[in-house]
Amino acid sequence: MKKIILLGIGILFLAISLFFMILYLNLFTLGYSFFDYVHFINSRIECLIFYIGIILVIVGLKKKG
Description:
Blueprint: H1 2-23, H2 34-41, H3 45-61
Helix pairs in contact: 1-3
């Protein structure tokens, strides 16, 4: 049961952070380069939960033994 909850929270974190990453793609229309975009994404807390979500999904999918 614990792994299902971790998997669900991880997927939720991934969905939220990917939503914001797609939303911030509009920065390209303002003249940002790709490296500026990556730097901006890595500085936003709502996009950093992407990494936490990946870790939670991996832990949730890991076999027990």
